[in-house]
Amino acid sequence: MNRTERSVAQGRLAGLDGIRGLAALFVVLHHCRLTSFPGFPYDTGPGWLSWLLYGHFAVVIFIVLSGFSLAVSPARSGWRVGGLRRFAVRRAWRILPPYWGALAFSLAVAWTLVPQPGEGVPTLRSVVLYGLLLQDIAGSPSPNGAFWSIAVEAQLYLVFPIMILMLRRLGAPVLLGIVTALVAMIGLLSPTVPAVAALMRLTPQFAVLFALGVVAAGVVTRPERSARPWPAVLAVAAAVPVVVLIVVNGSVWTVEHFFWIDLAIGPAAGLALVSVATRRPAGLVRMLDAAPIRTLGRFSYSLYLTHAPIVVVLSTMVVAPRVGPGLAGFLVTAAVAVPASLLFAWLFAAVLELPFQRHRSWSALRTAAKGRVSRWTGRSDERAPADARPPVSVRPPAEDGAHRP
Length: 405
Hints:
The chain is an all-alpha fold and about 400 residues long. The chain is built from 19 helices and no strands. Helix 2 (about 15-35) runs antiparallel to helix 3 (about 55-75), helix 4 packs antiparallel against helix 6 and helix 4 packs parallel to helix 15.
C-alpha cells in the first residue's frame, strides 16, 4: 500500500485543512480590501490588488470542499449516509454552536460599536432570520457580511442525502447532469420569470459545486483509483479559460455574472481537490500540510465566522480616522486586522468549535469539561466523581473513523 492509499484508507487526506485555512484567510484579506477601497464591485484600488476583489471564489472552494468532505465517509461505505437523523444531528452539532456564538458576537458589535458596511443596525427580525439560517430567504440588516453562505451550506445539507441516493442508484454522470440542468434552467429563466428569479437568492449554482465535490470524493476513494495520482495540470487547464474571462471583462462584469462564472470554475475546483487528495503536486501538498497552515485550517470555520466585525471595527474606528482609505489604509488594516482576527478566532474555536468536534454529545462534552476543571483544580483522576469518567462508547466503529470536515 503506497502513501496515497494509506492516506485515503486512514480517513485523513493531507492538504484539505490547509485549503480551508488559506481560503478563510483570503476572505479576511478580501474584506480588508473592501473597507479600504470603496466602490465595490468597481476596482478602485491598485491593479496588483485586484485579485482580492474576488473573495466570493473562496466560498466556491468552501462549497466544493464541503461536498467532498461530507461524501468521503459515505463513498467508503457504499454511498450510504448511515441514517438521516444521525446525519442531521452531526451536522447541527458541527456548525450551529460556532455559528450561534459568532451571531451573538456580531450582534453585540453591531449594536454597540459599528454595523456592517451598507447595512443598518440589526433588528429583532435579523436575530430571528439569522438565528434560524433563513437570511437568504428574506432580507434584514446583516450583523455579519460573511453569514450569507452559512445559510446556503445548511440548505445543501438538506439535499445531500438525496444526492447520495441518486449517486448510488443512478451514478455520478446522471447526478451531475440532473443537478446542472435544473440549476442552468433557473439561470436561464430568472431574467424573465419573476418566480424563478426569486430562487436566485438561494445561490442555486452552489448545488452544482456541492455535487461536484461529492463526485470528486467518489473518485478519490475508489480502490482502483486511489493509487493513481491526478495531475494538477488538469485543474489548471480547466481554470485558465475562466481566469482569462475574468481578467478581460473586469470586476463589474464578473460580479454581475457570478452565477455562470461559479459554474464554470466548479470543475477546476473539483479537479484541484482530487489532485491534492492524491498528493499531486507533492510540493504543494507538503506546503498545505505544513503545521502552521494545517493548524489554520482547523479553526478556519471560526475565522470565517468572526472576522468581519473585527475588520470593520478596526478599519472604521482605528485605521480610517488616522490613515484614511486607499493603499496605506489597506496595508495598515491588514497589518492590524489579520492578526487580531486570527487570535480571536483561535480563542473562539477553543471554546465553541474544537470541543464540539472532539466530543460528539452533551454527555461527552460535560465529561470532558469536568475532567478539565478537575485538572485545573489539582484533583486526581482517582478522586474524580463517577459521573466525570468517560462512558463506554456505544457508537459503531465507523463513526470514530469517519472523515470530519
